[in-house]
Structure formats: C-alpha cells, structure tokens
Write a structure and sequence with these properties.
The protein has 317 residues and is of the alpha/beta class. It contains 14 helices and eight strands. Strands 1, 2, 3, 4, 5, 6, 7 and 8 form an eight-stranded mixed β-sheet that branches.
Length: 317
C-alpha cells in the first residue's frame, strides 16, 4: 500500500501494529493490550484524517496509485460479462477511451469510460487517460448504437483532461467534444454518469452529460485542474492548494451547487482501501438511477435532461 503525505501518521501506526503482532507471534510476551491500544489509536487517527480532508487532499485521493481505475470498475460491475468494442470507424482506436456492452444486475448497459493504466508502460499505452478526438468519436459511436437498440448508457469519468497535443487539435478535438455534448443532450436512452476519479475540463464533459450524474466521495470535477489554475493565476504550481479550495471542485461542493445528483460514499480511507465495498456502492447507485429513469418516455427523458442542464449556472443577485 502506498501512502500520501497526509497519511503518514496512519502508516506509522500500522507499522507499529505490525511489529507488535510479530513480537506476539515470535515470543511468549502477551502484547494483546498493546495491540488493542494501537488499533484504537489507528481507528481514531483514520477518522480524524479522512473526515476532515481539504479540497487538495481530495484531489490527491482521486489520483492515488492504488485507486481502482475504470476497467477494474467495469470488470466488477459487470461480473465479467463486459464485451469491449473498438474504433471510431474514421481514424483509429483510442486506447484512452474504452467502451462496450455489459450486464449490471441483469440489465444490459453500453459502458464508456477513460482508462489511465496501472503502471508506467500501461499509462503510456493508454495516454494517461487523455483521449484524442477519435476516442470521443468512438464513445459517440457506441452511444448512438445503444440508442438504436434501446440500451441505457453508463459513462465512467476519470481523466486529467482531453489530450492537448497539436495532432489532436488538427483532428478536431474541440469539435469532437462539442459534438458529444450536443448528441448526449438529445440521446433517446437513459444516461448515467459516475465520476470515479478525476473529472477535468472538457475531457470529462465529453462523456459527462447524464440524466443522473454521481460523484464518488473522493473525486473532483472542474473546468481546470488546481495546478493549471495556480499556474495561470499565480504563474506557479505552488498555490495549487489555494486554487483547489477556490475552484469548489469536491463532491460536496458540486452537490451543494446542484451540478451533480448525488455522492457515492467510499470506505474509510478511500476506494482503494476496500475495493469490493466501493464497487458495490457504485453498482447500487447505477441501478437506483436506472430504475428512476427506465419508465420515462423518450420525450420526458430528453426534456428533463435539457431542463437540467439549462438551469445550471442560474443565480440571483
């Protein structure tokens, strides 16, 4: 298990508990009381740290190297029934964007999401979860296929942003994202979106338009990353913590501003601490959202979705 800087007090206590247990196993000394004291202190420390996370610490949690990525979510949500589909039928297959059919709780879904990769080699292969235009066009192709056959769509968002390279711009990155937003707004099947990691900029919004939009507890969703915001405002990354607070990018902030529908709770310490519980929570919310949408007519579905996004950004002086 890897630890973030603010988790070091937890690491120290866990190391002490391990040593205490080893001493008890390798000698005749009764260390039961000591181990219980350390365990109690460990639980108190965890609660104190994780219940009072700052916005920047939430960002760090969303990037934790042990946090489950999209394909891991898909595999567990679909119990191995996922059939991946490839290519945008125009340029090539984008490995940063994955998609295909799978069954969740007996219901078929077209599932689309960004995959970052679990090690250096895989991250390069997946372009660190930063999709090119062909990735967004692949996602749209699959969503239109789902619409044709009346299959609901599930999108899983985890990206530091769309790929900003010259070749991506040459192939129409902005147009591809804008086209997805337009088409998703008027898609005639239910769309459920879950932010499972980072939700940065238009790269996230390109598959982020949904009838139900959920955020996992330790994720973030914003027009810009704290580092980029800091570099623009202060010409330095040193102010990323202040930027994170100002951006109001946490799940709690987004729910308070009615930009997402609900927050999916995570196990104490984050999704990586108890992946099975995290996967079950996501599945529960996905199915709950679908059950709320499945009986709506196409007209009601599209109308409610348009109204939902039209109201965003309204304010009273």
């Amino acid at each position: 298990m890897e630890y973030l800087d603010f988790e070091l007090p937890i690491k120290e206590l866990e190391d002490q508990l391990d040593k205490c247990q080893v001493i008890g196993q390798e000698s005749d000394v009764d260390v039961t009381a000591t181990c219980e004291q350390i365990t109690k202190k460990l639980e108190e420390t965890k609660k104190d740290i994780y219940k009072n996370l700052t916005a920047w610490q939430r960002v760090q949690m969303s990037r934790h190297p042990n946090r489950p990525y999209v394909l891991e979510h898909i595999t567990n949500l679909t119990d191995g029934t996922f059939l991946e589909m490839f290519g945008d039928r125009n340029f090539k297959d984008d490995k940063a964007m994955v998609g295909g059919l799978g069954r969740i709780g007996g219901q078929s879904f077209m599932i689309v999401g960004q995959q970052k990769g679990i090690n250096t080699k895989m991250r390069q292969y997946r372009n660190f979860g930063m999709a090119n235009p062909e990735g967004y066009r692949k996602a749209l192709r699959l969503m239109k296929m789902a619409e044709k056959f009346g299959i609901p769509v599930l999108t899983l968002v985890d990206t530091p942003g769309a790929y900003p390279g010259l070749e991506a711009e040459e192939r129409g990155q902005g147009e591809a994202i804008a086209r997805n937003i337009l088409e998703m707004i008027r898609l005639k099947v239910p769309i459920i979106t879950v932010i499972v990691g980072e939700g940065a900029s238009g790269g996230a919004l390109g598959i982020g338009v949904g009838d139900k939009v959920y955020m996992m507890e330790n994720t973030w969703y914003s027009v810009i990353s704290p580092e980029s915001c800091s570099s623009i405002l202060w010409r330095s990354w040193e102010f990323k913590e202040q930027a994170a607070e100002a951006l109001k990018l946490t799940a709690i902030d987004m729910k308070r501003q009615n930009l997402v529908d609900d927050i999916i709770p995570e196990p104490l310490g984050g999704a990586h601490r108890d992946k099975e519980t995290a996967f079950n929570s996501v599945k529960e919310y996905v199915l709950k959202g679908f059950n709320q949408l499945k009986d709506l007519s196409t007209t009601e579905l599209v109308s409610q979705r348009m109204d939902k996004y039209s109201k965003m950004g309204e304010f009273k002086e």
